[in-house]
Specification:
15 helices; mainly alpha
Length: 359
């Protein structure tokens, strides 16, 4: 009896230690976000900053929210097209609802369940195929990042002098390197890559190395990536015309992203030159991908302040603009939260399965 109790206690302690190990990265990211915010608010003139909010222009507030709505509709249309390529046909209204719920999970809920997981889970449950739903989300994310890399490399051509700044030149060089690597892999042959990834399960037979948690986790990730990449490759070969439309929608989304930032500046006063702004925004968005803060809080605001200072914009204006964009994300997240609480017409339980899907 005592032995059993000891085992239970030991298992409980092990579970608690594992839980703490998982929590430490989250705590660290929130700490980084807090440090960024403290630093930003410590370097601005508080009076001038508050004065900006007193003189906000309501007409541009409405226009900026309208642009955010167009961004969501564009992303949702792209997602629907990619789902159609996977043989999943769902109404635009349903997908829009799930997309907004994904915003809630991504921007308001401090959990391991991200918006992509939520969208993949709900559409997969509705269609009865989680794998193809995940492939659609994977393709949406991949095409978006691919287009962002192209913009980060080429957009500074709008203001060629900006290449002299390491903060612009380095992202451009990294983007070019990644694009060349992807082009090399494509030239090498997708069939060869898929064949290599398909044999990755054999690594699990390498004795104690194959049985190690790290190798098993890596094998699981690679096998899942192989399955999604294989289906994505099939979809690309099946209907290239639709993929051209996907890239056009991606280009439209980034065009709206430029307008989103520009309109947010107009809320508080005169914006930077449009071409100069377009030149630095892709580099800023690459900074957003760094997983060092909680939900990009603090990191995004700091990136806006730093890059727009290069264009001669006062930190107070850039910080006010970035906080306004953050406010819009929160508002959209609240709408998603209300839809999530209603849970009508989603085709599956509101909470069951999300934790498993996240893993």
């Amino acid at each position: 009896m005592e032995l059993c109790l000891g085992k239970v206690a030991g298992a409980g302690e092990a579970h608690e230690r594992t839980g703490m190990k998982k929590k430490w990265p989250k705590i660290a990211r929130w700490g980084v976000s807090l440090l960024f915010l403290v630093f930003l608010f410590g370097t601005i003139q508080k009076g001038e900053f508050l004065h900006l909010f007193e003189d906000m222009r309501p007409q541009f507030v409405l226009a900026s929210f309208g642009i955010s709505a167009l961004m969501i509709l564009t992303s949702c249309a792209k997602w629907q097209l990619l789902l159609d390529l996977q043989g999943i046909h769902l109404s635009f209204a349903y997908l829009l609802k799930i997309y907004l719920i994904g915003y809630y999970f991504s921007n308001l809920l401090p959990s391991a369940v991200g918006g992509d997981v939520v969208r993949s889970y709900y559409t997969g449950a509705k269609a009865g195929c989680q794998t193809r739903a995940a492939v659609a989300v994977f393709l949406e994310r991949f095409t978006g990042i691919l287009f962002l890399l192209i913009l980060a490399a080429a957009a500074p051509l709008f203001e060629f002098r900006l290449y002299r700044h390491p903060a612009v030149l380095l992202p451009a060089l990294i983007s070019i390197g990644i694009l060349l690597a992807l082009a090399g892999l494509w030239w090498f042959g997708m069939s060869r890559i898929l064949a290599f990834l398909g044999r990755f399960k054999e690594f699990s037979r390498l004795g104690w190395i194959g049985r190690s948690p790290l190798c098993q986790r890596l094998t699981k990730v690679v096998v899942g990536f192989h399955r999604r990449l294989s289906l994505a490759s099939q979809a690309l070969r099946t209907d290239r015309k639709r993929f051209a439309v996907v890239f056009l929608l991606t280009a439209l989304f980034y065009g709206l992203t430029w307008l989103n930032v520009y309109s947010a500046f107009l809320v508080f006063g005169d914006p930077p030159g449009f071409t100069s702004m377009c030149a630095v925004i892709p580099a800023i968005m690459l900074v957003f991908l760094l997983p060092i803060s909680a939900g990009n809080i603090g990191l995004a605001e700091g990136a806006y302040v730093y890059y727009f200072r290069m264009l001669g914009i006062h930190p107070e204006i850039s910080l006010a603009m970035s906080l306004f964009i953050r406010f819009k994300l929160i508002v959209i997240g609240v709408v998603g939260f209300l839809l999530y609480m209603r849970g009508e017409g989603m085709g599956c339980p509101a909470t069951e399965g999300l934790t498993v899907a996240a893993k």
